User: Fold this.
Amino acid sequence: MWRRAAVDGSAILALTLLLGWVLSLATTKVANWFVMTDELYYERLSISVAQTGSLLPRLYGDVVANVNQLYPVLLSFLYGDGDVPASFAAAHRLNAFVMVSAAVPLYVLARYAGAGRIWSLWAGGLAAAVPWIVLASFLLTEVVAYPAFCWALLALCWAAGRKSNAADAVALAAIGVAVLARVQFAVLFVVFAVAVIGEAALAAAADGRRGRELVRAAADSLLRKRRLLVAVYLAALVLIVSLALTTESSRLLGSYAVTLERVRVDFDLLRLAVQHLAVLALGFAIVPFVLGSAWLVDRLRPSALPRERAVAVVGVAALVLVTLQVASFNQRFGAGEVKDRYLFYALPVVVVAVAVAVARRRWPPWWALVVPAAVCSLGFVALPLRTYTKLNVDSPVAILNDTLLDLGTSETWGRALLVVAVIVAVQLLVLAATFVPRRVAAVAVAAFATIAVPAQAVYAFDRLFAVNGTNGLPITLDQSGVFNWIDRAVGDGGRVAMIRYPVESPDYWAGVAYWWDAEFWNESVVDRFADRPNPGAEPWLHEFDRRSGVVLRPEETQFLLVHGTDVRFRLAGRQVVFDRGAYVFDLDRPWRATWLTDGIYPDGWTRPHTPATITVFAEPGQRTPVRRFLFISVASPAKDVARPFTISSNLERLQDSIPVEVSIDRRVTVCVPPRGSAAVTVETPIVSAVYRDPTKAALTGEIDRPAGILLRSIALADETEPMESCPPPPPT
Assistant:
């Protein structure tokens, strides 16, 4: 026995390492982020664990409601040394081996179900070569969630057949780990309950029980053999009811609490559910999916072998419940679209079913084949065949839509082609069971799956590398040496707060990508300043004492990252470096503003018929009035007329006009009294409609708000000139 176990372990371990190495050749070609802000979110959580040593999920020093902490904890072993490019490359190498490790539990599950060593290896290897394996290219929870789900499936099948408190405890622990990998897997608690009850009923039916006698026998079996499980579920029920009475039950899901809102079962949900299953079948090449699903349906019978029956009740429960869960989520929060990224976890049990059916050469009956075929056909009938310029992470199988549209010449005929493929698949399976030797038919199905499924995975990687990523750059282009300039500037252990500002307006995505790069590629960027939600037209004003400019709630960081075009405020400090249009300052203590702007939108446009007021604060220790020099760059939104404007201070008043499509720079002097402040105003009598506020909506380029002129930059010179007194501002 030990020798056989050693051979089995060596075989699946060697296969997993080989597949991991092959996959790593592709994942390590990825040199940039692709899925935002998901990748940034999990990277920052991992950096927090690495820097603080705390396993709690923290962002910018605050604990956040995130249950999916298993992947950030795993990544934390690679991050924390201040070399993000090296950590990023190591993470993609690790991703490959972690995700294909799902082959190990699936191999064991296939052996448990009776597939034999060779076909169990085949099942494990094929499950690690599905098209969704492309998700190993990104810093996403799918990397650990996939193997965690497979281990949970193994534990649930073993517990369903074993019927002991020890097996149930292992299954509950496996579900707990899976939930830490992805909170979506809380559905496995329901899957386990349904599977256990279903197995008890089938076992009672196998003993000849019927009707009420069957129900009593099943209940008696649960109470005698699964006392631990019954106690755990009763305690969980009491907890959920108690929290529901206090409207706190949703908090058990952390940041996914919103998924419990507005749940409803209707025709649209069922339609979306069958569409999800159809896409899952397409990703598994239809023929093997129909065969495996039919085997699961056929094994839901009292006469089935106990182990096969256990796999069937868990597999069918997982397929149905996870599909309904994903469809419900996408119906309410996914614009009603098919997003198989959240469903592919349920596919491995179908892979195992195919392996057992092929190994035992036990074809399911025709009626069992019709069940999944009918579901897939209904799903394909109305399935949208949208095309995407690049890999759609939410639906990797959508890469096939282009080919389907080319073959069918239209979306309608593309759907018809899929329905015909399902019908042909069923006919081939029925004919094979009737006229072809079972061994030949089994090998033919396995060979087809072995070619078709990995081919989709290869094509998914090809699409990933062929098109520029989300930031507009090739995903294989390594730009980390450019983007990690902040870490290089502040050194190991430096801590930087970031002030985000809409750069590249009105191009929202270019602007937001700038800050994604700054944060993603620099471990030192650990906090954000002036990013808290506050009421009022200018929310940043709530961060300062308006009389002195002192920051009311300073952060714990030493350095500050601010873009040169930010015209809202500027904090006092020594410039460390200027790169990519931004400054890193070593801040003075206490944190204070040298100047502060009121009367503008968050991206620098002046509000209609409202002067923009730039308040210049006195320096600490300043004993006499001083003349300060303020440099202001302004631009006009008008494309056909010049825009008049006025700049006023207590020393001078400038009137000028901005030429069409030109920005101009002006210097204005202002007298700042000691222990006080002075104001400079910028105003224009003209109002025009400009694009939407990019801090509030991603839809830019549309006329949406009235504005005056754009403050492009503000700079306060270090030079000062003493003055005897500060005059009042000139009359307007």
In short: The chain has a mean pLDDT of 89. The two ends are 96 Å apart (CA to CA). The chain has four domains: 141-261, 266-471, 479-595, 599-732. DSSP finds 22 helices and 18 strands in the chain.
